[in-house]
Amino acid sequence: MEVRIEPSWKQALKDEFRKEYFLELAAFVKDEYADQTVYPNPKDIFAAFELTPFDEVKVVILGQDPYHGPDQAMGLSFSVTEGTKLPPSLQNIYKEMSEDLGVKPMTTGDLSRWARQGVLLLNATLTVRARTPGSHQGKGWEQFTDAAISALSKERENIVFILWGNHARTKRTLIDSNKHLIIESPHPSPFSARKGFFGSKPFSQTNSYLVASNKAPIEWT
Fold first, then answer.
1. What residues contact residue 38 under an 8 Å CB cut-off, 6+ apart?
2. 35, 65, 100, 110: which one is catalytic?
3. Separation in Å, CA 183 to CA 43, 67, 164, 165
4. Is 173 exposed, middle or buried (0-12, 13-18, 19+ CB in 10 A)?
5. Cβ count near 115 (within 10 Å)
6. C-alpha distance from residue 57 to each of 47, 49, 61 (Å)
7. Measuring CA to CA, which residue among 43, 23, 18 is closest to residue 33?
8. Three-state SS for 25?
9. Beta strands of the chain (E only): which ranges?
10. How confident is the model at residue 3 (pLDDT cuts 50, 70, 90)?
11. Packed helices 88-101 and 202-212: angle between N→C axes, nearest 10 degrees
12. Do the Cβ atoms of 162 and 121 come closer than 8 Å?
């Protein structure tokens, strides 16, 4: 089947598109969009890949599901559309960034500026039924996004993988820690942020590593 995705990612993941699980996943997603309200907008399903080509990835921030409320999900983990109220986890991300870097918190929840600098904002599951978190888990998306993480680990060097929360931390086994930096902490949600996310300084750690690897740091604000 023909999948519309950024060309360098299409090349990196070309074997996945022919596998049985992906064909079944594509059929499932097509039916869901036909019969249900599903997020994000179909044109944004692969937004993370479109904004951050394979050879330009410097940082990976892993999420789990897209937001399942109206006018929120935009295909980038933790990011919401311009003008949308900041979700609690993103508020805590900004709070930690402010403390870590000594800057004012951002007011927009649109993180596409990060993505264009090489921050792959990747959810493990790329679609979700409205008001039903986890509804598209176990349908094949995880196998696809695991393949993306594995390809980056194998074919690239000196990428920072930021794993927030237990679900993201399970992806550690896909990443070669001899070639890349892995930053782990509890999730930024209000339920766990005070258990080690606050004070973890992921933004300054990331930039220090990128500079040491002769890469431009991320302008987080």
1. 29, 32, 127, 128, 129, 130, 136
2. 65
3. 31, 23, 8, 11
4. exposed
5. 26
6. 14, 10, 11
7. 43
8. helix
9. 38-39, 59-63, 119-123, 128-129, 160-164, 181-185
10. confident
11. 60
12. no
Map 62-89 to HEC letters.
EECCCCCCCCCCCCCCCCCCCCCCCCHH
CA distance linking residue 47 with residue 67, whole number of Å: 14
Q: What is the pLDDT of residues 110-152, one digit of tens each?
A: 999 999 999 999 999 999 999 999 999 999 999 999 999 999 9
Q: Is-catalytic flag, 71?
A: no
Give the CA angle between residues 5, 10, 12 to the nearest 5°: 140
- Amino acid (one-letter) located at 131: R
Cα angle: 14, vertex 137, 163; to 5 degrees: 80
Predicted confidence (pLDDT) per residue in 47-78, tens digit: 999 999 999 999 999 999 999 999 999 999 99
